[in-house]
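Recall the central idea of this unit: under ordinary conditions, the amino acid sequence of a chain determines the structure it adopts. In this exercise we apply that idea directly, starting from the sequence alone.
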Amino acid sequence: MEQRFSEMTPFELTQKIGAFTDQARKSEQLGMVSELAVYERKIDMARAYLMDPEDFKSGQTYFVRDLAFKIHHMKGILAWGGFEGSEKLYAYPISLLKKKK
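Accordingly, the structure predicted from this sequence is:
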C-alpha cells in the first residue's frame, strides 16, 4: 500500500515531487494531457505538505491563477474560501496560494 503524503518526511516528499515531475514531463511529451494534469495535482498536494498551514489564516486574501481568493477557513493543508463576487466555497492546497502583489 502506498504511503500517504501526510505520513512522509520532507525528504520523501521532495523525492516524490521529483518523480512526479519526471512523469509529468513524459506525459507532456507524449501529449497525454489528462495524465499530465493528474501529476500536476499530485505535485501541488505534495508541495502543500512541505508548507506550514499555520502561515495561512482566515480572512487573508491570496491569489489563485491571478484571481483574488479570500480564505474562509483552513482544514489541514487545504484553504477553503471564495473568489471576489462569488459565494461558492472552493478548496485549494496551500501550495497554490500566492501572496498579494
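The chain has two helices and four strands.
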